[in-house]
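User: My instructor asked us to take a sequence, write out its structure as tokens, and then describe one feature of it. I'm not sure where to start. Here is the sequence I was given:
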Amino acid sequence: MGLIIKEKEFVIPGDIVAEGIDYLPAGGVFREKDKIIAGQIGIVSVDNRLIKLIPLTGIYKPKAGDVVIGQVVNISFNGWSIDMGFSNLALLSVRDATSEFIERKSDLSRYFDFDDYIVAKISNVGKGNLIDLTMKGHGLMKLRDGMLIDVSPSKVPRIIGKQGSMINLLKDLSKCQVHVGQNGKVWINGDNCEKLIEAIRVIERESHISGLTEKIEKLLGGR
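Assistant: Let's start with the prediction itself. The structure tokens for your sequence are:
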């Protein structure tokens, strides 16, 4: 009793992933009696006792706690409208933008101007997918210079890796700055980041293939 399908293996709906009570179902799988069964197409991911599926494709579904990258597209009296590649714009209110006191009628473009990119966290997703953002927290900031590339949101967990292992590898070997948003936006900055972009595309294409870490190390000159 235990895992029937190994980590990183491909499954389709109805496949039995595990049996017994040693594992708990998370995203993309469900329990039926003593079996954990795949509810969608994806790649098996095991984290301690939790089993989930990483979808091969899919659109981004925002949820509270996600760190995202977005662009300022409008400024109003009470905050900023942020385009994060979702159907709805997100709101970054004045009170959630900074710990600094901002007086009424202040020029908010002094803080975040049109077309600025930011790393923010989703603080709430309300009815109708109304999204509130916050800039209060570790690693949340305005991005300067650099470039933005789009990846499939379903590949973000693989780009980050378990406990940040893959993203740390990418940073260490490329010597570039990297920020990854759960919404499939990746910001990079540094000299000669072409190999880094190539590595990210390899991760996108081959996220389900074993030996990926070694391939990325070789591509970036780590071995």
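For the description part of your assignment, you could build on this observation: The chain has a mean pLDDT of 90. Try explaining in your own words what that tells you about the chain.
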